[in-house]
Amino acid sequence: QVCTQVPYRCYSTPGVGQVQVDMNSETGVATVRLNRPPVNSLNLDVLTELGIALEKLDADRTCRAMVLASAVPGIFSAGLDILEMYQSTPERCVAFWRALQDAWLGLYGSRLVTMAAIEGHSPAGGCLLAMSCDYRVMADGKFQIGLNETRLGIVAPFWFEDVMLNTIGHRETEKALQLGAMYSAQQALSIGLVDKVVPLAEVMPTVQGELKNWLQIPDAARVITKTSMRKQVLDRLRSQKEKDAQFFADFIGRDSVQRSLGAYIASLQKRKS
Ligand SMILES: CCCCCC/C=C\CC(=O)SCCNC(=O)CCNC(=O)[C@H](O)C(C)(C)COP(=O)(O)OP(=O)(O)OC[C@H]1O[C@@H](n2cnc3c(N)ncnc32)[C@H](O)[C@@H]1OP(=O)(O)O
């Protein structure tokens, strides 16, 4: 068990945490694995845990990089837990949204080199997490990635849109968001949504190899550059967090949105039967 070996430090209880953090003090690289079977859907608890983990890593001066991955085979993350949005209360919706905002601000604004190891499906909120890293390596094959919100009858908020714009540009974002497009790894590579596509078994070694390049750059210069590139998008959310959370709760509470979500949940269940 990797967590118990020196020089690894483990921020979560092995086998218990829904966000497992293994910190290798020798390399300064932490691996953060989402661990909420069956599909790593992001509920209030997971988002809170993720936000705290990112905060701790940022404060750990021995940590220089973070790999975001999954402990669940075949899935990076299925995105936000739809059950947090369906038949919920306004208070819970606001708390849920704040946890998402904080986790995202921690990830997109992290001083660390951040890399996504996408070893499975990565729709919606899963795609947001991946896009918020500095670099993405995705497994080739059947897995899909994208912001599919419109297919659920919901709308990707402005900060999801901003991150996608910064990743793949205006024209591709316009198409991707309106259509709620989901891309294969090869398609994602062709529009710049991911940086490298390799066979599943090579995702982690490829991430580790790429990290070596990034870690050759002096931290201070890299961090100043990253901050300068991302500040505008981060500040846009920071300046209107409460308004954004309230808008989310109001929007999700609409009858028409609830009907769409209910139909989408039923379609997910029907797929299985
Ligand atoms: C102003 C308004 C702003 C709103 C902004 C909202 C922003 C972000 C939105 C989101 O992130 S919404 C989430 C969107 N996610 C999806 O559409 C993914 C849906 N899931 C799938 O397509 C598939 O599950 C999968 C990820 C491709 C995996 O397929 P697999 O065959 O491996 O697993 P399933 O059998 O389909 O699923 C197992 C089990 O999990 C349930 N489930 C799947 N995804 C979610 C989810 N996102 N939230 C909650 N539950 C989910 C699925 O229904 C199955 O449940 P059971 O039938 O076993 O009870």
UniProtKB/TrEMBL annotation:
Gene3D superfamilies: 2-enoyl-CoA Hydratase, Chain A, domain 1 (3.90.226.10), 6.10.250.170. One of its GO terms (cellular component) is mitochondrial matrix. Homotrimer. Belongs to the enoyl-CoA hydratase/isomerase family. It catalyses: (2E)-tetradecenoyl-CoA = (3Z)-tetradecenoyl-CoA; (3Z)-octenoyl-CoA = (2E)-octenoyl-CoA; (3Z)-dodecenoyl-CoA = (2E)-dodecenoyl-CoA; (3Z)-hexenoyl-CoA = (2E)-hexenoyl-CoA. One of its GO terms (molecular function) is delta(3)-delta(2)-enoyl-CoA isomerase activity. The lineage of its organism: Eukaryota, Metazoa, Chordata, Cephalochordata, Leptocardii. This is Enoyl-CoA delta isomerase 1, mitochondrial. It is found in: Mitochondrion matrix. Keywords: Acetylation, Fatty acid metabolism, Isomerase, Lipid metabolism, Mitochondrion, Signal, Transit peptide. Pathway: Lipid metabolism; fatty acid beta-oxidation. InterPro entries: ClpP/crotonase-like_dom_sf (IPR029045), Enoyl-CoA_hyd/isom_CS (IPR018376), Enoyl-CoA_hydra/iso (IPR001753). It comes from Branchiostoma floridae. Key enzyme of fatty acid beta-oxidation. Able to isomerize both 3-cis (3Z) and 3-trans (3E) double bonds into the 2-trans (2E) form in a range of enoyl-CoA species, with a preference for (3Z)-enoyl-CoAs over (3E)-enoyl-CoAs. The catalytic efficiency of this enzyme is not affected by the fatty acyl chain length. GO terms for biological process: fatty acid beta-oxidation. Its main location: mitochondrion.
